[in-house]
Amino acid sequence: MTTNDHTPTNSDTAATAVEYAPEHAPRLNWAEHAPEVYRAMVRLDAAAGHGLDPKLRELVKIRASQINHCAFCLDMHSKDALAAGESVERIVQLSTWEESRHFYTEKEIAALELTEAVTVLTEGFVPDEVFERAAKHFDEAELSQLIAAIAVINAWNRFGVTARAVPGHYRPGQYK
């Protein structure tokens, strides 16, 4: 049986144990080879999160990571959200927040909508109505921090996806 410290197993009986697919290897440990960039990203991430509610910040990071298919960041920020007191239910519903709006506040919905607009840039720009809805719920300083947090998680996602960072080993607060 193949198990890793992050792979769930059925502990009821050995006969019902599940064999999971093998873990992929990372392509590159970019942080090791570009340590100054990594340290700058860590500082930028900390600066971008200043003044934002920790739960909201994690919801934004999770949603951007879902869109960008960054399994490593999704693992990390789901765990950090749980550690910050976020509910499993709200994290699970996040990928379909538009259909389950009743799980989120209007302020969180505005932040999620802005996250999607900044992450995808489908129209080549962030629509005025999306920005205006966010501006109704965040003062200019907080909105600036939110935009920074969205931009930073998108950058982290690009590093994680490109380097094929391996999810499952992160422990909440590990990199703080």
Summarize the structure in words:
By secondary structure, the chain is mainly alpha-helical. 57% of the residues lie in helices and 0% in strands. The chain has 8 helices and no strands. The chain has helices spanning 30-33, 35-49, 54-67, 71-83, 88-93, 106-120, 128-137, 140-163. α3 packs parallel to α6 (106-120) and α6 (106-120) packs across α8. The model is unreliable at 9-13 (pLDDT under 50).
Structural class: mainly alpha
Number of separate helices:
8
Low-confidence stretches: 9-13
Helix residue percentage: 55-70%
The gyration radius over C-alpha positions equals: 18 Å
Seen as an oligomer or otherwise, the chain set is single chain
Percentage beta strand: under 5%
Summarize the structure.
The chain is an all-alpha fold.
Give me some keywords for this one.
176 residues; 8 helices; mainly alpha; globular
Topology:
Blueprint: H1 30-33, H2 35-49, H3 54-67, H4 71-83, H5 88-93, H6 106-120, H7 128-137, H8 140-163
Helix pairs in contact: 2-8, 3-4, 3-6, 3-8, 6-7, 6-8
